[in-house]
Methylisocitrate lyase (Ahrensia kielensis), 303 residues
Amino acid sequence: MLFTTKTPTQKRADLAAQLADGKLHQFPGAFNPLCAQLIERKRFDGVYISGAVIAADLCLPDIGIATLDEFVNRGRQICRVTDLPAIIDIDTGFGEAMSAARTVRLMEEAGLAGCHIEDQVMPKRCGHLDGKEIVEASVMVQRVRAASDAKMDSNFCLIARSDARAVEGLEKSIDRMKAYVDAGADMIFPEAMQSEKEFEAIRAAIDVPILANMTEFGKSRLLNKSELESLGFNMVIYPVTTLRLAMGEVNRGLDAILKDGDQNNILDKMQHRKDLYDLLRYEQYNKFDQDLFNFEVTDTPMS
Ligand SMILES: C[C@](O)(C(=O)O)[C@H](CC(=O)O)C(=O)O
Ligand SMILES: [Mg+2]
């Protein structure tokens, strides 16, 4: 079938090259494989797979109750359809050190190019909400070391996320991030930074690539690509953006159907059938069966 053309090894090597080129790489969140395909068509650098979105998709809050299998499965489904490197959120690792190690193995097997693990306690919370609790730095160091040792591919990017800014302040959170790098983290994810100055301080203190989380309606101002690049960041994620966009439009569209009694006023808000088919590479499936794709765009409604 018309799946990815690159092996996970190639995708991880692509990610390693991106992280070494000194530029900022944009990884929008994909809420499903189809969305990942669109991200690739738009020529983004990579795909992000958000824990908050995996949970929300199952109609669950982001508090660590979606299962490891659900995460691995979503990761695998997305990696299967894109040549872009994909990185996935693994929350707190689905347990302590041993479980974190196993989670990394499973994500490598599923084709991911990297994952991020955080220093919150279980049950965790969204990093941009108040009242977070974190584990001792030594516990997180064990998680990171075990996760790093579990890597089969040295290009698999292990990202250590620290939620300590909100709990212990900037300085202590920087000490933690340094300890996580010493324990084997390949990249750092400073969660919920409150100003550009804080992003600057992190860049000055940390020698490995850094990720910026530009999630909407959170603690951080939404910085532009050029601002993040000049701050020296290597990757930016827009974790929940595509889901928020889609659900916003679904909400308005359902209201319109209730109000108008039909969809005629909302057709221009929809992805057209022809664009969906193009994204699915429908026509190319004709090489298996000449009668599969017989769709033509006409002005008259389809019967
Ligand atoms: C990045 C994040 O971990 C996610 O799961 O996408 C979330 C995003 C969000 O809830 O807006 C987080 O920042 O905790
Ligand atoms: Mg998350």
About this structure: DSSP finds twelve helices and eight strands in the chain.
